[in-house]
Amino acid sequence: MIPSDPIMLVLSIILCLFFVLFFIERKKNAYNLPPGPRPLPIIGNLHILDMKKPHITMHQLSKKYGPVYTLQLGVEKVVVICGYEAVKDALVNHADEFSGRPKVALLDEMYKGHGVIFGSNDNWRVMRRFTLSALRDFGMGKEAMENKISEEADFLVQKFRSYKGEPFDNGININAAACNIVVSILLSKRFDYEDPTLLKLLTMTDEVTKLTGSPMAMLYNTYPSVMRWFTSVAEKVLRNTEELHAFNRETFTNHRKQLDVNDQRNLIDSFLVKQQEEKPNPKLYFTNENLTVLVSDLFDAGIETTSTTLKWGLLLMMKYPEIQKKVQSEIDKVIGSNEPQVIHRREMPYTDAVIHEIQRFGNILPSSISHATSQDVNFRGYLLPKGIQVIPLLTSVLYDKDHFVKADEFYPEHFLDSSGNFVRKVAFMPFSAGKRSCAGENLAKMELFMFFTRLLQNFTFKAPPGATLDLNPEVGYILYPMPYKTCAIPRL
């Protein structure tokens, strides 16, 4: 019976709300979350978090609360996992339980659960299985792909030579080279570095990546219903994302007209064939939406991993010319004036160690991409509920002082033994680990070695006169080096 007295009606509603909140809180308390800093109402722990470099704060908090602790972002509880042993335990030993993706407002609006990076459940599994298979089919780890990278390295060397030793910003050229490797897999073509389509694609991708990693985006994801009235970050990201998706869709339309099921030339052809084969099934995975986002995923991951690491690499070679000289000596001894090949890597332990240390020190994805528990899970004495956001803090792995003696320094000897032989380190985890590790890891490794050795074979990189080399990264989700100019002095 509904009370007729307005006061009694209000009291009844309050009482109902009280019981609902009581049972919700009781359900939460049934789980045993790890300890963490005391949250404040509404803002949680945002007041203690460096919004520009949240991974630094998270790493520092682990020293007080241990390798597994709870952080509250607004009203959402997040579990942070730090250090090699704990991160490996979660991502490898409990791979299935930590293979989910959390609900993040901006990413949900951008990708709607499609694709391979932010997809979930069966959709993600099907897309990842297809992506790995297609990357193998179209060259990853094969001689054909090695030839494509070698050809692209030639174009990059020619572009660097055109500056005739004068200072230039290498960013857009390195981005273009990395992008062309992805384009060769997707479309069986390459773009000239001055091509307006390529430049537009790179500009939009770069802006989306930087905006989604900004402090304002973090606030938007914490309070989406409120922040949409105070910031245009979502509007800008979604506008650029839609332009990228429109470019992708136009490309697919052209491919459909040329599709030959008996002659699959690239990843998009392979996807379109799968789409035709799937049509009789009631549940579809190879949809236009999945293809659109999958291509965007491959552009994002394929460009950023390689290009950002190479930019760090050239900056570090300028900062430490004695290391650059030792790499060049090894290149001269093993390769000479011949074209670098992946097989040369086995004979070049110092160069291999330097590339690994660039990846470790550059630490380009310090917070990884957030995971979520796919089910209730007992982990290290705690009971974590299904769906809770989990941050495997990769910076705490790559800078783990139990595994890297000079973790805060650029020190290639981390990957060398006393005899100068290359040594693998279990805590070397720049591509993450487990079910959500980077699908293009092998391709990225091949690109890094071949681009890096070709550039140092042909040039000595020096800072412009009077320039200061800053090793502090730009603010963002991805740690880019600060913009810098370099002088590529020809050696050959």
Structure commentary:
- This protein has 492 residues and is an alpha+beta fold.
- 52% of the residues lie in helices and 7% in strands.
- The strands form three sheets. A four-stranded mixed beta sheet has the order 1-2-6-3. Strands 4-5 form a two-stranded antiparallel sheet. Strands 7-8 form a two-stranded antiparallel ribbon.
List keywords for this structure.
52% helix, 492 residues, alpha+beta, 4-stranded mixed sheet
Calculate the terminal CA-CA distance, rounded to whole Å. Answer: 91 Å
Principal-axis shape: globular
Q: Please estimate the helix content.
A: 40-55%
Class per helix and strand makeup: alpha+beta
Order of helices and strands: HHEEHHHHHHHHHHHHHEEEEHHEE
Poorly predicted regions: 5-28
- Strands of the largest sheet, in order across it? 1-2-6-3
Assembly type of the chains comes to single chain
Give a quick account of the main beta sheet: strands, pairing sense, barrel closure. 4 strands, mixed
Mean pLDDT: 90
What count of helical segments does DSSP give? Answer: 17
How many strand segments? 8
Strand content: 5-15%
